[in-house]
């Protein structure tokens, strides 16, 4: 079948990996970028424009079968003001083309202090501003009536720097790994999602469009670190040496928060490091037969190489 997808955020982490996975599954892929420039993936048909401008999104989406909304304001700037208007452009473009709108979701829809395990139909009672916005995004998509696919996952990591804890707060891309700065409380489990695995899941789900419900939601379990030590140990295994962990100095972050929007957003996410938050993927496994999952050490080896931190 001749299938075409528009990926908003195709130069980013989840968007770029999803674009590659869709191509591997035989899809034609388009991307929307603010400025055409050398170095863009030649296997993607690029359109110049802004995801905030409906006309740009509509032009790039003309005739597509799926639209992947994997775009976020850079560096969390004006996140609360821009995220909902951006999703409106994608909803309108999906309606105009009767296309499936795919959204990479998060665990922020839930309150980890009250809900250590969440299923796709668990009550969404977010305790953070970002979680409330995420909940509103999903509700707006569902209320619009557009065909939709939401795949919620834990903290993303992968071979490209981006808005993720591993590359923004735990190690320094481009430098050898010394001690890993670990944000979590002792004994608190944490969910990790390797971006190529998430992207492969999106591709497999979109390949089966005819079998999906009109509003489809699934949870991607990913790698579960049951006590906060397994990811650091796997980083050491990927490097071939022992790596020590040091705690994140949470008490010092408020001093820099007024001057740094990224730190302000990270501070709000502290409950997800103090309490375990696990996603139940039984609906996904029932539909696909399995969840795509790369070995943890191998996924970190590829990630560290891509980040320039593999010795």
UniProtKB/TrEMBL annotation:
<dbReference type="GO" id="GO:0005737">
    <property type="term" value="C:cytoplasm"/>
</dbReference>
<dbReference type="GO" id="GO:0004029">
    <property type="term" value="F:aldehyde dehydrogenase (NAD+) activity"/>
</dbReference>
<dbReference type="InterPro" id="IPR001509">
    <property type="entry name" value="Epimerase_deHydtase"/>
</dbReference>
<feature type="domain" description="NAD-dependent epimerase/dehydratase">
    <location>
        <begin position="5"/>
        <end position="211"/>
    </location>
</feature>
<dbReference type="InterPro" id="IPR036291">
    <property type="entry name" value="NAD(P)-bd_dom_sf"/>
</dbReference>
<protein>
    <submittedName>
        <fullName>Nucleoside-diphosphate-sugar epimerase</fullName>
    </submittedName>
</protein>
<dbReference type="InterPro" id="IPR051783">
    <property type="entry name" value="NAD(P)-dependent_oxidoreduct"/>
</dbReference>
<dbReference type="Pfam" id="PF01370">
    <property type="entry name" value="Epimerase"/>
</dbReference>
């Amino acid at each position: 079948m001749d299938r075409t997808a528009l990926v908003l955020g195709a130069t980013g982490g989840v968007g770029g990996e999803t674009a590659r996975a869709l191509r591997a599954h035989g899809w034609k892929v388009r991307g929307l970028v603010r400025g055409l420039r050398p170095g863009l993936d030649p296997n993607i048909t690029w359109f110049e424009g802004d995801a905030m401008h409906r006309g740009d999104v509509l032009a790039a989406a003309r005739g597509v079968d799926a639209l992947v909304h994997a775009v976020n304001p850079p560096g969390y700037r004006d996140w609360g003001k821009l995220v909902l208007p951006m999703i409106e452009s994608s909803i309108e473009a999906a309606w105009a083309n009767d296309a499936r709108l795919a959204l990479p979701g998060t665990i922020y829809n839930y309150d980890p202090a009250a809900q250590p395990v969440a299923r796709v139909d668990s009550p969404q009672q977010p305790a953070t501003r970002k979680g409330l916005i995420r909940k509103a995004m999903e509700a707006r998509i569902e209320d619009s009536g557009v065909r939709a696919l939401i795949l919620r996952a834990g903290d993303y990591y992968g071979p490209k720097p981006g808005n993720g804890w591993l590359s923004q707060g735990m190690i320094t891309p481009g430098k050898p790994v010394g001690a890993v700065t670990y944000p979590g409380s002792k004994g608190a489990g944490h969910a990790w999602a390797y971006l190529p695995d998430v992207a492969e899941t999106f591709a497999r789900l979109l390949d089966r469009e005819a079998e999906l419900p009109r509003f489809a939601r699934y949870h991607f379990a990913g790698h579960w670190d049951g006590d906060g030590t397994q990811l650091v140990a796997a980083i050491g295994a990927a490097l071939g040496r022992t790596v020590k962990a040091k705690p994140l100095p949470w008490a010092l972050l408020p001093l820099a928060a007024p001057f740094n929007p990224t730190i302000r957003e990270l501070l709000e996410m502290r409950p997800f490091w103090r309490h375990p938050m696990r996603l139940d993927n039984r609906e996904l496994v029932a539909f696909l037969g399995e969840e795509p999952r790369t070995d943890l050490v191998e996924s970190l080896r590829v990630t560290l190489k891509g980040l320039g931190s593999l010795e």
